[in-house]
Amino acid sequence: MFILNIIHAIGTMFSLYLKMAPSVFCSPFVDFFISSYYNRIVSQSLPFRIAIYISYSIIVLFLYLPLLLITSTLGIAVFIVFLTLIISVLIVWSLGIVVSFLVWLLLYRIPLYDIIYPRISRWMLQHNLTVYHHLPQGADAAGSYIRVVRIKPANPREIIECELVTEDIATAEYDALSYLWGTTIFPYKIKVDGNDFYVTYNLFSALRELRRPDRDRLIWIDALCINQSDDAEKSNQVRLMRTIYAKASNVIVWLGTGSKATTSACDFVRRFRDTSIEEDRDHLWAKLISSGDWRHIRMEFGRIISHEWWTRVWIIQEVVVARHVLIRRGSAELDWDTLQPLFMYTPFQEMFGSESTDFAANIQYLRNEILADNPTPITLFDHVYKFRHQSATLAADNIYSLLGLLRPGFNSRVSPD
Questions:
Q1: Which of 348, 370, 381, 412 is the most exposed place for a label (fewest CB within 10 A)?
Q2: Span 212-223, mean pLDDT?
Q3: Are 197 and 224 in contact (CB under 8 A)?
Q4: Confidence of residue 19 (pLDDT cuts 50, 70, 90)
Q5: Nearest in space to 8 (alpha carbons), one of 69, 50, 71, 64
Q6: Residues 68-76: what's their mean pLDDT?
Q7: Of all helices (H) and strands (E), which one includes residue 195?
């Protein structure tokens, strides 16, 4: 309403000014507009009034004012300056549109992006090699040791500093991160063991949010804890992946940085979970969609449900075998089990689609099977077919990522290399 009053004041000011000006062209039209349409405008809805006032202000600014200036002593000169200013703004705006289109075309629609990013990725891997040392090897040690990241406490604006700690997986206590690597044109720098270490923006933002202000945090992150340039180590760690996520105290699902509506959306999810009667849930849902915050909360739910994390194949076993799963978006946090009732709610599925919610239901089914006394026998082919629409950077990962879902002792005849 404050903005509406400002717009109306500006329009009225120009109207009065034009009425007093010696312009036989402008004054009659202004008189006619005010007398004939003002009462109609103020009786309309707020969005309609805003649109009318903005349109009227634009007409006054870009049409009547130049015409008025022409009738004055220095009108022509001022009009030329005014017109030049408008043309300059339009040229800058047009150039911005053209440059944005070219950037989009070069990065996403032609192979230039596929040329740039792999080179950046290789540079990052080569530069990050300096922080790694071989994991302990031997008859008893082979395959039983992992690295864990110790994130040092600091204020949000300070540089992220970490240490790599070698731990026996049988006794280690840590959280594990489930996230989307993402791509980046501009690597983000952190410190690992005092050395520069480059990561993608998605991981950088996760580290910044997960860092505690007053104490260390131990967390397993594949991009840091596995030497990505050592194929033998990667093969060995992939075999341990199920154990790594199953042993973690918490598996933290990172869904990116939040928005102003993230906290409100998470609060509603908790209230929905605590409401067990179907009629009460319908009332709670109806109350939400009729509230003034609904537009922002709906956008936030849309961003959560459409996040690319839901499409990746590696995250399946990371969540299925976990003891406790936390959904993290920015500083807001939810339990996996807290999110399920809303995901299974029919009006929610109808509004946001069922692709991600069906995927979450399949994940929950497998989590229940692991805890069951007599689990249903599921083969590797069953898993591959069920999750055939999930994506992976490497085609072989569509197989390797699902090996950890097989029951212990099952011989799949497949081994990551």
A1: 381
A2: 93
A3: yes
A4: very low
A5: 50
A6: 58
A7: strand 195-199
pLDDT higher at 15 or 267: 267
Task: Write down the pLDDT at residue 251.
Answer: 96
Pick the residue with more confidence: 230 or 220?
220
Assign 79 a pLDDT band (cuts: 50, 70, 90).
low
Q: Which contacts of 71-74 are long-range, i.e. CB under 8 A and separated by 24 or more positions?
A: 71/21, 71/22, 71/23
* Alpha-carbon gap, residue 380 to 395, rounded angstroms: 16
Are the C-beta atoms of residues 152 and 216 closer than 8 Å to each other?
yes
For 317-384, give the DSSP string. HHHHT-SSEEEEETTEEEEHHHHHHHHT-HHHHHHH-SHHHHHHHHHHHHHHHHHSSSPPP--HHHHH
Residue among 124, 128, 138 nearest 168 (CA): 138
Question: pLDDT tens across 169-185, in order?
Answer: 988 999 999 998 877 77
Burial label for 56, CB within 10 Å (0-12, 13-18, 19+), is: buried
DSSP state of 267: H
Please state, in angstroms and as integers, the Cα–Cα distance from residue 350 to each residue in 112, 184, 284, 356, following that order: 38, 34, 17, 12
Strands 188-192 and 161-168: parallel
3-state secondary structure 47-101: HHHHHHHHHHHHHHHHHHHHHHHHHCCCHHHHHHHHHHHHHHHHHHHHHHHHHHH
Give every CB contact of residue 310 below 8 A, 6+ residues apart in sequence: 355, 356, 359, 360
Q: Is 220 helix (H, G, I), strand (E, B) or coil?
A: strand
pLDDT band per the 50, 70, 90 thresholds, residue 119 = confident
C-alpha 154, offset from chain centre? 24
408 pairs with which residues across the strands? none
Amino acid at 360: A
CA 226, CA 13: separation in Å to the nearest integer? Answer: 67
| Residues ≥6 apart with Cβ < 8 Å to 394 | none
**Which tokens go with 287?**
């109350």
For residue 74, name the pLDDT band (cuts at 50, 70, 90).
low
CA separation for the pair 403, 63 (Å, rounded): 70
Task: Give the 3-state secondary structure of residue 215.
Answer: coil
The whole-number average pLDDT for the span 205-219 is 93
Residue 228 neighbours by CB under 8 Å, 6+ apart: 125, 128, 234
Residue type at 236 in one-letter notation: N
Tell me the one-letter amino acid at 189.
K
